[in-house]
Design goal:
By secondary structure, the protein is an alpha/beta fold. It contains eleven helices and eight strands. Helices cover about 50% and strands about 10% of the residues. The strands form two sheets. A six-stranded parallel sheet has the order 2-1-3-6-7-8, with helices on both faces. The chain has a two-stranded antiparallel ribbon with strand order 4-5.
């Protein structure tokens, strides 16, 4: 037979309460006196401050496009997201600038063409009037000139209208967090190519070499002798030697091999 062990019950004796002596203060008063003394000695209680839970504010967006169907589509997509709030829509350049100045949104989604107006011209104006607003170009064009100008202006995003919603929303969130976003690999390749070209141009300016001198270094790197270079350029060998000496001086080197190595290090050839 199994048995269950239950906790034992202790029987406590009943002790009669002590009776106050004759003329003594009642027990309630005696107990109250030390309590009042303690209360007086302690600082005043500070009421508990309720915690204020600050919910993250939605990303405020202004949509600018001269096609109503595009504006409505973007409005529908963004309104379905808890972290986005469409604060305005504009279909013309003047309305876009007016609303942007009034609303100071977090992001402006801007078409590259607004009828006869250029979205890039508007972007340039808004960069001055709304310095805290991040501008995202949303376009159906992939023209290289527009892309490079947008980058020079300083827009934060250059996105294609063909971008799926699953990629558009993360791109806008990235822009809001401070990143710059380009939607398609081809555009990224174009930007990187332009960056490389500008870097080489800066290095060329810093080196002091002319385009002709860089071409001479390139021929030297290909293994051409002074005589061969002279024949190609219709110069004398003395002229080639003199020009190579100028190159050595500008690159702070002493011979042809060092000149080639330095030009390669600088990305000039």
């Amino acid at each position: 037979m199994t048995s269950a062990f239950l906790p034992s019950h202790r029987v406590l004796p009943i002790v009669p309460e002590p009776q106050p002596a004759k003329g003594a203060a009642p027990a309630a008063q005696m107990a109250e006196a030390p309590a009042m003394a303690r209360k007086a000695a302690l600082p005043a209680e500070i009421p508990d401050t309720p915690r204020i839970q600050q919910e993250s504010l939605p990303i405020r967006v202004l949509i600018v496009d001269d096609h109503e169907i595009v504006r409505r589509g973007l409005y529908t997509v963004l309104s379905e997201q808890e972290d986005f709030e469409v604060v305005g829509q504009a279909g013309t350049a003047n309305m876009a600038i007016t609303l942007a100045m009034q609303l100071q949104p977090d992001i402006i989604i801007l078409d590259i063409f607004l009828g006869a107006s250029s979205g890039l011209d508007i972007a340039q104006q808004l960069q001055r009037g709304c310095p805290k607003t991040r501008i995202v170009i949303l376009t159906s064009y992939s023209d290289e000139a527009h892309l490079f100008r947008a980058m020079r202006i300083g827009v934060h995003g250059y996105l294609r209208k063909s971008l799926p919603v699953s990629e558009l929303l993360p791109a806008l969130r990235s822009v809001h967090s401070g990143e710059r976003v380009i939607s398609e690999p081809r555009a990224i390749t174009q930007v990187l190519g332009e960056f490389e070209r500008l870097t080489k141009e800066q290095e060329r300016i810093r080196s002091g070499l002319t385009d002709l001198e860089i071409e001479l270094v390139r021929l030297a790197a290909a293994g051409c002798s002074n005589k061969e270079i002279a024949a190609r350029q219709f110069w004398s060998e003395v002229t080639v030697k003199r020009k190579m000496q100028d190159i050595y001086r500008k690159l702070s080197v002493t011979d042809r091999a060092q000149a080639v190595a330095e030009a390669m290090r600088m990305g000039l050839i």
